[in-house]
User: Fold these one by one.
Assistant:
Number 1:
Amino acid sequence: MALNGSNIVHQILIMKNTGVFMKSKINKKIRILILISLCLLLLGACTGDNFGSEDSASTKDIPEAAKLESESVDRPQKPKTTLIQPATGIVEEGNTRGEGNISEEKDTTHENNTDGDMEEYITYFEGKYADAIPNSWGEKVKGVITEIDTDDKVIALTFDACGGKNDGYDEEIIEFLIDKEVPATLFINSRWIDRHLDVFLDLADNPLFEIANHGHRHKPLSVAGKSAYGISGTQGIKEVVEEILYNDEKIYRITGQKPRYFRSGTAYYDEVAVGIAGELNYKVVNYNVLGDAGATYNKQQIVRACSSANPGSIILFHMNRPEKRIAEGIIEGITHLLDEGYTFVKLSDYHDYLR
Ligand SMILES: [Zn+2]
């Protein structure tokens, strides 16, 4: 019989009620011995219950389970293992469009279970970098990748979708890439995803393209509130973390894929912010060929920029300004590079060679 505390109490009550103690003929010493034995048994059973409850306590299992889950989706490993989880779980295979969540994706909100995790990240980084004073500010600060370290005749095309109020979608460029089977890495801002969700879902579904993170509010990434091109940057570590992770979470929730590359709005950073992005498992990727200068170049300038590319170049274009009519120049520039024998690759194809 399984013996536990309530069983024993029950047995004592039965014995008492049936008059075992009062009516038996055994002497007083034996009765005392029986009582002591029962008390010891009761004590042992209660102790066993406590151990049992500790063994089965879920608190012991949570860190490992969280770690496994985080590893399985290649989540950042620092500073802790319970990382941002998608509010709706991992999107099922074959359902990367996440139709069930679209209504929740209408704006850039982040009302879900992740704010607690976000706070822990912010606390961690604010502690770690409390005394850090950045000494550089720009597009090529320490830690920012600008090219692929290779002699292979390859080029990585990158396209930004910035998410400004009047942002469009330059379909002509993307259709050309699809037609010629030219792969590219697309840096997408959180607000662009909200405004062009159907297009985003198509792009994310197309194996020619990989989705990268172009920030939540399209801010220059500064721990000290610096600006670039008149655009005010993130005001501190808290906003740096939010700028990266809110869009990270959005992309992951919709696609089931965690982006590996980050480029800030304006492509400006300080080196402390770049370090934070690195700890969040991101490579910060800029360029060594300015392809369209924020969609301001004319056709000749774009073609000339493309012709300056070398093996391992990373070219920066934009896919959010169709009204600037840069498509023609980009198409001609890429066509020339194809004619010269270049192969186009995604950043992840040369992940370990990004410098
Ligand atoms: Zn941008």
Number 2:
Amino acid sequence: MASSMAATLVEQSCARNKAMQITGCLLFDGDCFAQLLEGRENDVKLLMSSIGRDKRHTEIRVLERRFLQTRRCAQWSLGYFGPSRLIHRVIQRTMDEPTSQVAMRDLTELMIGFGNE
Ligand SMILES: Cc1cc2nc3c(=O)[nH]c(=O)nc-3n(C[C@H](O)[C@H](O)[C@H](O)COP(=O)(O)O)c2cc1C
């Protein structure tokens, strides 16, 4: 997906997420996306089924599902960060080591860290 298409996707996603009170973050390394979504359980499930039907994806992996007391990306309907070497490295590591808790923690912390800059 081209970066201009990603911008349109984020704009449309923000509007829908806001309406559903979903917050989150989307990272793009030029090839793969990594996304964190948070909200009411049913709303997140509904959104995940929309995303699952989206033909722009070739493969979707759910890396983690969990209940949270407080949102970690409360300030964003969908924060977006485009291609960089850091983002590529962190996403690739989670792809290469899907069961690694360290890789997962680094990915999550990168997203939350962007939000708290
Ligand atoms: C990488 C990626 C991330 C997406 N994230 C969201 C999102 O956070 N919120 C959203 O409403 N749509 C998101 N979409 C778009 C959905 O897949 C879908 O096209 C849109 O929600 C409309 O769903 P519908 O066809 O069920 O109406 C994303 C699509 C892609 C490719």
Number 3:
Amino acid sequence: MLELLFLLLPVAMGYGWFMGRNSVKQRDHSAKQDLSIKYSTGINYLLSNQQDKAIEYLLETLTVEDDTVEAHFAMANLFRKRGELDRALKVHEHLVRQKHLPTKAKQQAAFELGKDFLTAGLYDRAESMFHTLMKSKVFAQRSLTYLLQIYQSTKDWQHGIELKKAIVKSKDKKLLHTLANFYCELATIALEKDQFIEVLELLESALRCDPNSCRANWLMAEIYENHQQYNEACQCYKDIYTQDNEFFPDVIDKMANCYHQLDADDEFYCFIKKVYDETGGSSALIKYLSLIEHKHGHVKAQEFMLSALKRRPTIQGFKHFIKMQMNQPEQDHENLAMIKELVSAYLNIKQRYNCRNCGFNSSTHYWSCPSCHDWETLKPVRGLEGE
Ligand SMILES: [Zn+2]
């Protein structure tokens, strides 16, 4: 009930002001009477606990003036915060209908109404509200963000891409990153239909929006690999490492295969050594160990593994160490196999991916976090139980 006083406060002030003026003429007298009736009727509704009637009555009878518009916004926001969306909608719709308000207040009313519709899941109405604000200096960028949010929820990638001109003009990195992922979504659909040229064009558009899009390079590498263009695929995998090395563990095997196809295993192992030196990741370590074993024998590889595990212990590294032990003829294979199985079972119940934005954990990889909906934030877990 208290929030309705936001509306009544300016009325009360006006009433007091009228009462304080003894020298008013006849025309002021009738206005004073009118205002006092509205004020007391509103109070009566409130006192009888009929909030909805009070809101409707006050919105219908009291005019929104420049000095009371902020009170209306504050009250509507309070309603929205308390989850009373229908009440917030009523106030914002009322404000949108006020033709005499200054442009900024009118735009703010449309923007807030768009947010109400979005919260209520009325995407069509929210979309048209945000579209009306595309030329607003104050609200255009925020409206773009909400429009992309709507198109992401409805998987309407094409409509999102139609906003490209405005997004590029905004130069907002987060919006450009989201747009690049919209292109990647379309590229994934085209990839399933084997539309090679279309996929490449969509991915190039994605990289023009966001040159650091790991996802675009990932898909690009997949296309090249499928078409046996291994040099190009290797370059894409290298780009992924440069762009965001936290994604790299998931492409190591694919990259190893491409170098192998090119008969360039040595080149791959030089690259992996650099990756291990720079990141210390367990996937890079395991790949690098194959090189040591191949060049310097099993004993050297085992020594390297032990010192690496002492420096930076990981369960994944420990599992690989057991596997190395199992390859030795003199070892107790039965017990080692049991330990390896237990470690594998332990790793299987652990979530492999973690969202760097909201902390959401998942065993499956998603390009858009199912919890916070940010793009490319789900990456392999780091630390003892991860990389
Ligand atoms: Zn998240």
